[in-house]
Every structure is written in structure tokens, then in C-alpha cells.
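Render Cell division protein FtsB in 3D.
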Amino acid sequence: MRWPALIFLAMLIALQYPLWIGKGSVREVQEAEARLEAIREANQTQERRNADLAAEVKDLKSGYEAMEERARYELNLVKPGEVFVQLPEEHGSR
């Protein structure tokens, strides 16, 4: 009676080994899922960035308003006959 129980226990351990320790174990699956989630988040960030860049390219191709706005704010350019006035920002309250 004792030998069949030992054989059954050995078979049970042999079947459980791949599930907990071997290739494709529960731990490996959880690590793979965590890596996959990190990759998905990075992809979403890149997709939002690509959509923003695509919208900016569309604006730049469609008219002069976007180009003029960028020239004014990024390069501080003015139209002929305009006067550029820059007011200093207040940093403290009085």
C-alpha cells in the first residue's frame, strides 16, 4: 500500500515541475505579461506623439497661419511695419 502512494506522489511532483519551475512556468508568464504591458504603454505614447506630429505637418502643409505662428513664437519674427514689444514676466507677488 505504501509503494503506490509514493509512485503517485512522484508522478504528481513530476507533473507539477513544469508548471512551477520549468520553461513556460507561471513566473515566466507573469514576467512576459509585465514586459508586454510596458511595451503597450510605450506604443501608446509613440502613437500619441505620431498623431501630434501628423496634425502639425497637416497644419504646415495646409496654410500659412501655422507657419506664421511658429515664426512669431519660436523665432521672434515680425511682419514689415510691426513693432515687437516684449513685457517681462512678474515672478513675485507684491
